[in-house]
Amino acid sequence: MGSAAALRELQRELETKANDLSKLQKDIGKNHQVRKKYTIQLGENELVLKELGLLNEGANVYKLIGPVLVKQDLAEANANVRKRIEYISAELKRLDATLQDLEEKQNSKKEAIFKVQQRIQSLQAGKAKA
Amino acid sequence: MASSKGGGMEKMSVEQLKAIKEQTDLEVNLLQDSLNNIRTATSRLESASTALHDLSLRPQGAKMLVPLTASLYVPGTLDDARKVLVDIGTGYFVEKTMDEGKDYCERKINLLKSNFDQLIEVRLELPNLKHCMSWYIGFKQLRHVVQAISRMERPIKYNYKSNRSKGMFLHPHNYTN
């Protein structure tokens, strides 16, 4: 009788752990998506910076603000793009850290689930013998 | 890379291998998407380049119809075809001369082409890996089946053991139970 209650308890534990795991996996997926977006933006900004670097001093640079093109200083545009790259790189680093954290959590959850499963199995095996 | 993975594959379970295979499938799809994107981008740049070339051949003051919407055109004259505005991304436009504009298109096309070639190389390798993975998973599953049978029918184990006692399908420790 006691073993049946313990089994139910374990199964409940397994369920909550599985839910936690799927939540973690969802978070990881979200992280991947955001990171993909930022990586694309970083690449685009780097291309723009390279292009701006190829221009000579007096080149006319325009910034698209809404539907209008506004003239902008080359130096100012350069600084803007550089700042953006800095920001995106920092954001990517932050995402990396959270991803690592999430993956560690995921692995430990998986291990915990595995252990609970083993305990359930051993309990069931014991019951089958008895 | 292949050899280092080969050692690890021996120890992995079928589930792990399946996960890896799924991941490779995803990678192949992603790669295919990237290749398609590069192809469309290249064709757009090529059409931009030809449009620029076309424009540079027109004399100043040439008559033209300018599209305001997809179906509404207004008459206009070409003022100055020597300068063009180039969208270099993230909302920045740069004024360039006609030649610089053409040069820009050429450069971008070349960049895309080199990226494309790199991706093609990767893609040629991936299906190989994919194939290898499915083969290996099949092999692992077969081994499980053989082990299960050998457990069910004890006599078989002696046959196997005598025939290939050192065979990779059946290790001695599998019979202990």
Q: Write the element-wise H/E pattern of chain B from the N-terminal end onward.
A: HHEEEEHH
Shape of chain A: rod-shaped
Structural class of chain B: alpha+beta
Text of the CATH class of chain A: Mainly Alpha
* Rg from alpha-carbon coordinates of chain B: 31 Å
Helix/strand-derived category of chain A reads mainly alpha
**Uncertain stretches of chain A:** none
The proportion of strand residues of chain A reads 5-15%
Count of extended strands of chain B:
4
Which band does the percent of strand residues of chain B land in? 5-15%
CATH topology of chain B: Helix Hairpins
Keywords (chain A): Chaperone, Coiled coil
Coiled coil (chain A): 85-119
InterPro entries (chain A): PFD_beta-like, Prefoldin
Protein name (chain A): Prefoldin subunit 6
Q: In summary, what is this structure?
A:
With 130 residues, chain A is mostly helical.
Describe the structure.
- The complex is a heterodimer of chains A (about 130) and B (about 180).
- Chain A has a single domain (about 1-130), classed as Helix Hairpins.
- In chain A, about 85% of the residues lie in helices and about 10% in strands.
- Chain A has 2 helices and 2 strands.
- In chain A, strands 1-2 form a two-stranded antiparallel sheet.
- In chain A, strand 1 and strand 2 form a beta hairpin.
- Chain A is rod-shaped, with a radius of gyration of 27 Å.
- Chain B is of the alpha+beta class and about 180 residues long.
- Chain B is rod-shaped and about 95 Å long.
- Chain B has helices at about 1-10, 15-55, 100-150, 155-165; strands spanning about 65, 75, 85-90, 90-95.
- In chain B, the strands form 2 sheets. In chain B, strands 1-2 form a two-stranded antiparallel sheet. In chain B, strands 3-4 form a two-stranded antiparallel sheet.
- In chain B, a hairpin with a 2-residue loop joins strand 3 (about 85-90) and strand 4.
- Chain B has 4 helices and 4 strands; from the N terminus they run ααββββαα.
- The interface between A and B is medium-sized, with 19 and 11 residues.
- Strand 1 of chain A pairs antiparallel with strand 4 of chain B.
